[in-house]
Amino acid sequence: MNETLMTKLERLKNFLRELGNVAVAFSGGVDSTFLLKIAHETLGDKAIALTAASVFVPQREIDASKKFCADENIRQIIFAADVLNVDGVKENPENRCYLCKRALFENFLRLARENNFAHVVEGSNVDDTGDFRPGMKAIAELEIKSPLLVAELHKAEIRALSREMNLSTAEKPSMACLASRFVYGELLTTEKLSAVETAENFLLDSGFKQLRVRVHGKLARIEILPEDFSRLIEMRSAIVDKLKSLGFVYVTLDLQGFRSGSMNATLKGAIQ
Q1: Which of 52, 198, 266, 269 is the most buried (most CB within 10 A)?
Q2: How would you classify residue 88: left for phi > 0, otherwise alpha for psi between -120 and 50, otherwise beta?
Q3: For residue 262, what pLDDT is reported?
Q4: Where are the beta strands (DSSP E) in the chain?
């Protein structure tokens, strides 16, 4: 481990020690897994995991979060979040992430208080400050702590440290809430979200790693890594049949390949 990473890691641990006890907003992704692991190593039972189960989160991610906490002997509290009944969320406006995050973290704060934890922390890193992320506003308003930001850790550094710690998430593809698959303004329903989850599970089970199935009405736009294009073309018929069985009329491959936040391109008024 190089000196810079050692310094940032120690800064992270010191910040957690200063907080004394923390409830970690835990999704099972790369960042929150790393943060929870360090928090538990640093604070022991004074660190717990809070996980929101909702139609925005694939079940395989919930299952993975349960397994990690069980393997690490970390207390986990899972609560059912009825996100589609949060005012404004199902209409999928441009600030949907803010509305949803605000409601979720208000629940995290309530659960933390009920379990005598003084602080809720979450896993945003330095790279998260560069895109359109209205959810960050909710985190700031509610005074949620972001230890990885305090430590000035970037995504690549978190992956490097995760590899050093032999965390299974070190190479895990980036994930995002299923609502991010839909064009802004499209009504979100349980059925539509389930169709996206099933479509993405099919592609994941077929061996594709980093991917998204973006939805534009009845059109499914598949984003995968460019190096996987040829394999997808070989599976074209099976993929088309599967996605059409889920209600999609058109199935397309995005020639730009996978990229985080591609739905935000329309917010900038640019063709990307």
Answers
A1: 52
A2: left
A3: 77
A4: 22-25, 47-53, 76-80, 119-121, 211-216, 219-224, 250-253
Locate the DSSP E strands across 118-249.
119-121, 211-216, 219-224
Tell me the Cα Rg of the chain.
19
Q: What is the pLDDT of residues 119-163, one digit of tens each?
A: 999 999 999 887 667 788 999 999 999 999 999 999 999 999 999
d(CA 76, CA 26): 9
Output the pTM of the full model: 0.92
Q: Locate tokens 């309530």: which residue?
A: 110
Please state the separation of Cα 208 from the chain's center in Å. Answer: 18
How many Å apart are CA 1 and CA 155, to the nearest integer? 16
HEC readout, 108-119 = HHHHHHHCCCCE
> Taking 70 as the threshold, does the pLDDT of residue 271 lie above it?
no
Task: Report all structural domains of the chain as residue ranges with CATH numbers, in order of start.
Answer: 3-171 (3.40.50.620), 178-268 (3.30.70)
Nearest by Cα to 223 from 197, 261, 253? 253
Query: What tens digit of pLDDT does each residue of 34-87 get?
Result: 999 999 999 999 999 999 999 999 999 999 999 999 999 999 999 999 999 999
Average pLDDT of span 182-195? 97
Contact between residue 271 and residue 262 where contact means Cβ atoms under 8 Å apart: no
Beta-sheet strand order (sheet of 211-216)? 211-216, 219-224, 250-253
